[in-house]
Amino acid sequence: MEVRIQKKPPAVVVEVQGDIDLYSSEEIPKILQRALSEHSPSALVMNLSGVKHIDSSGLAALVKGFQLCQRASIRFVLCGLNRSSRQVLQLTRLISVFEVAESEEEALSGNGS
């Protein structure tokens, strides 16, 4: 898994490439915490367009990220979900918990669902 953090005021975009699975998922909350503390954004956007697979530990990592943002009163938005990632979120009903946008631009504009 590779991660790139970009400051796009007033938000921070965390772009993930690769799988979010048992081997990489424990890094996600650490990365998100660092992005929040270093940039103090009003929104944290996770661009998952480069993610091919998310397993249950990956979902847990996304929930932890959501909780970090919720405690800090920061919007947490997922964008760029591929078909497989979207299906996993729908099957677990987490799709209704997260704010989801089709694109990074939509997420940054605040027009996600």
- Count of DSSP helices? 4
Shape by Cα distribution: globular
- Strand order in space, largest sheet: 1-2-3-4-5
Structural class: alpha/beta
CATH 4th-level superfamily: STAS domain
Oligomer: single chain
Mean of pLDDT: 94
**Structural domain count:** 1
Strand content: 25-35%
Level of helix content?
25-40%
Distance between the termini: 27 Å
Which helices and strands appear, and what pairs or packs with what?
Elements: E1 2-8, E2 11-17, H1 27-39, E3 43-50, H2 56-71, E4 75-79, H3 83-91, E5 99-101, H4 104-109
Parallel strand pairs: 2-3, 3-4, 4-5
Antiparallel strand pairs: 1-2
Helix pairs in contact: 1-2
Structure write-up:
The structure is a single chain. With 113 residues, the chain is α/β, with parallel strands linked by helices. It has helices spanning 27-39, 56-71, 83-91, 104-109; strands at 2-8, 11-17, 43-50, 75-79, 99-101. Strand 4, helix 3 (83-91) and strand 5 form a beta-alpha-beta unit. The longest helix is centred in the middle third of the chain and has 16 residues, at 56-71. The radius of gyration is 12 Å and the shape is globular.
